[in-house]
Amino acid sequence: MFTVFWTTLFFFWWVSTTYKVESALGRPSCYNGFCITLNEEMITAKAGLCVVIPCSFTTADGFTPKSIVWLKCEPQKRRCSDIDIIFHINRYKVPSEFLGRVLLLDPDVSQGNCSIMINDLTTSDSGSYQLRVNGFYHGTADGVTFPSRTILSVKDLNLRPSLMIPPLTEGQQATLTCTAPGLCSGSPPNITWMWRGKIEEDYIITGSTTALKTQDLTAVTQRHSSTLTFKPSAKHHNTNVTCKVSFTGDITTEETVSLNVSLLAKILKGSGCVQHAEVLSCVCISEGFPSPTITWPLLKNHTEYSVINIVSNNTVNSILSLRNPGNISVECFSSNENWEVKENLRVYRELSEEAYHEKHCVSGFGALPWVIAGVSLSVHVFCMIYIWHLWNTRKKTNLTEDQTYMSLRKRDTSAEYDVIVQRPQ
């Protein structure tokens, strides 16, 4: 009874397992007791990534498998030959372009798992793949090449990396994550971050960059990611960040997203007030994202006023006009969902026309004594020069006419005389 129970249980397990394999790979193809199960449909993959060719086999009684050989040739070729080897236990039989790129998922051949992974794919990897199993048949070295083949088609890479961008706030540290497409265990891709500013020039983003490998699905597949940690600022708002992934063979792909940085509300230079007579005019300029709102706390005690708000991009201009303000201080209050700020604005007071004229008249009378003193000094200097000139003229009357003429001519052309005469002008 016990034997019948376990026999029945094993039968149902075998049927269930066989059904799953057939559903995933197709039906086994058998010949003289040797069976192989391959994917019935064409396998498609992308250049730069990796692909798994699933495979399982069973052998006839008396055959002991020892090693696996994979071959690749053109689909129209009837049978792949030894020159088409891409995987072999003897590395010297493998061409350099496949060496190390083709991996056997299960090195224990006795388990009947002949699945392989091909890394760093190129479009030249497209073709027909055929399996050969080497071993011993009743103690004699032998091998079998299965006639069934699977077709692999490698296309140009059109997949993009995935970007995870958390909410960004000005001045608060944030971490961006870029994940390369595909699940591969071959050569890790090179992941770089680029920031494009408003002047359309690319720069490497400064920050902490870390490359990650995440195990996924099986022990032979990995997901490659890169994280960037930085502090966003106003210059990053409405700009683009690009994650570029470079695979072996100059195969690249990238993804670009626009950054929206929540900017803290701030009051800009140029805000202030002017009071003229009984009217107070103020302007408060604030910037932030989302656009901030501006309020005037002093208005709760006044009724005669008007407020005009002008919004342009992320900047708000609030213009206040208030009658009969009295002797008060003016405070501007700006806030958005990220921050709030307030500032006491400086008030410039303009004089009335009467006060203006009075001020300038007083200034004129104050300067009058200095004007009189200047004129008096000029007159005295002129008189002294004139007397000095007469004295010199009389002193030289005993000279000859030519000498007198020359002496007078010399004095007329003297630079010193010119300066003394011209100074009162």
From TrEMBL:
Family matches, as PROSITE patterns: IG_LIKE
Ig-like domain location: 161-258
GO cellular component, one term: plasma membrane
Domain of life: Eukaryota
Family annotation (Gene3D superfamilies): Immunoglobulins (2.60.40.10)
Pfam families: C2-set_2, V-set
Membrane-topology descriptor: Single-pass membrane protein
Record SMART domains: IG (SM00409)
Signal peptide: 1-18
GO biological process assignments: cell adhesion
Membrane-spanning segments: 367-388
Subcellular localization(s) per the UniProt record: Membrane
GO molecular function: carbohydrate binding; sialic acid binding
Keywords: Cell adhesion, Disulfide bond, Lectin, Membrane, Signal, Transmembrane, Transmembrane helix
Family: Belongs to the immunoglobulin superfamily. SIGLEC (sialic acid binding Ig-like lectin) family.
PANTHER family in the record: BRANCHED CHAIN KETO ACID DEHYDROGENASE E1 SUBUNIT BETA,-LIKE-RELATED, SIALIC ACID BINDING IMMUNOGLOBULIN-LIKE LECTIN
Name this polypeptide is given: Sialic acid-binding Ig-like lectin 14
Species whose genome carries this gene: Xiphophorus maculatus
